[in-house]
Amino acid sequence: MIIGVLQQKGGVGKTTLALNIAAAYAKEGLKVLLVDADPQGSALTWSSVREAPPLFAVVGMPKPTLHKELPAVAADYDLVIIDGAPQVKELVRSAILASDYVLIPVQPSPFDVWSCADIVALVSEAQQFKPSIAAGFVINRKIGNTAIGRDVKKAFGQFPYPLLKTSISQRVSFAEAAAQGLTVIETAPSSPAAWEIYELTEILKTTTHERTAA
Ligand SMILES: Nc1ncnc2c1ncn2[C@@H]1O[C@H](COP(=O)(O)OP(=O)(O)OP(=O)(O)O)[C@@H](O)[C@H]1O
Ligand SMILES: [Mg+2]
Predict the structure, then answer these.
(1) Which of 38, 76, 159, 179 has its CA 20 to 30 A from that of 48?
(2) Residue 15 belongs to what domain range?
(3) Exposure pattern of 66-97 as b/e (b: 16+ CB <10 Å)?
(4) pLDDT band at residue 212, thresholds of 50, 70 and 90?
(5) How many structural domains is the chain composed of?
C-alpha cells in the first residue's frame, strides 16, 4: 500500500501529516518507508536531526520517475508514505501515479478549498492511466474547538473525492516534535494531537482496506 500525502499548494501540512501518520503505523509494528519526494528535503532533514532510533526508514526520491521506481522499493515494506512536493507539476504527477491512495491536506478556509482544484485535476488525470487510485481530503490546522464552517464543507462538494470524517487541529506540539526529529506519537502519545493522528490513521486503514478488499 502506498499513501501519497500530496497537495500542490505549499505549507498545508504534507510533511507534518506524512511523518506523524508514518509514526502511528510504525508504532503498530508495520514496516514503514517514508519517501521524501520534495526537493526541499524537509523529511530528510527531519530524520537527520533525529537522535532517537528510527521508527521508520526515510529516503529521498524527488524524481518525476518516482512512479516507475517506487514499486520495486515498496515491495520490501508493509506501507509506503510519500511526502509530496508543492508546485512542481511533474513531481506531483509522478507521486500521484505512484500512490494507491492520495491524502490531500487542506486548511479550513474557502481559499484553500478552492485552490484544491489544481491537485484534483492532476488526480483525475492520473486516474485515466490508473483508475484504482483513490483520494480524500483531510482538514489540517483546525482552530481549537471551532466546527468546520458549513460553507467550507460545502465547498468540498464540487470535488469528486470525500472529505474524511476527522480533522487535525492547529497545535504547537507538531512543530515542537518536528524540531527534534520526532513526532507527537513519541513526544506526547496520550495528547489530543496524537489521538487525532491515531484517528486519521484508523480512517485511512478502513478506507484503504475497503479498496484493496473490493
Ligand atoms: N496541525 C498543525 N498544527 C500546527 N502547526 C502545523 C500543523 N500542520 C503543519 N504545521 C506547521 O505548518 C508549517 C507547514 O507545514 P508542513 O511543512 O508540514 O507543510 P508542507 O505542506 O509539507 O509544506 P511544503 O509545501 O513547503 O512542503 C510548518 O511550520 C508546520 O510545523
Ligand atoms: Mg513539505
Answers:
(1) 76
(2) 2-213
(3) bbeebeeebeebebbbbbbbbebeebbbbbbb
(4) low
(5) 1
Cell of 85: 512536493
Give alpha helix (H) positions in 28-141.
42-49, 66-74, 89-98, 110-114, 117-129
* Pocket residue to mutate for ligand 1, from 16, 49, 104, most atoms within 8 A of Cβ: 16
What pLDDT score does 211 carry?
61
Residues 210, 109: Cα–Cα separation, whole Å: 30
pTM: 0.96
Look up the CATH number of the domain holding residue 205.
Answer: 3.40.50.300
9 alpha carbon, closest ligand: 1
pLDDT at residue 165, rounded to an integer: 93
Q: Is the CB of 183 under 6 A from ligand 1?
A: no
Please report where in the chains the cell 500500500 appears, as a residue. Answer: 1
Nearest one of 72, 1, 66 to 35, comparing CA atoms: 66
Q: What is the predicted pLDDT for the residue at 201?
A: 97
Query: 3-class DSSP state for residue 3?
Result: strand
- Dihedral class, residue 62 (left if φ above 0, else alpha if ψ from -120 to 50, else beta): beta
pLDDT digits (tens, 9 = 90+) for 100-120: 999 999 999 888 999 999 999
Characterise 155 by phi-psi region: left (phi > 0), alpha (psi -120 to 50), beta (else). alpha
Q: Whose CA is nearest to atom 16 of ligand 1?
A: 13
The closest of 98, 109, 165 to 136, measured between CA atoms, is 165
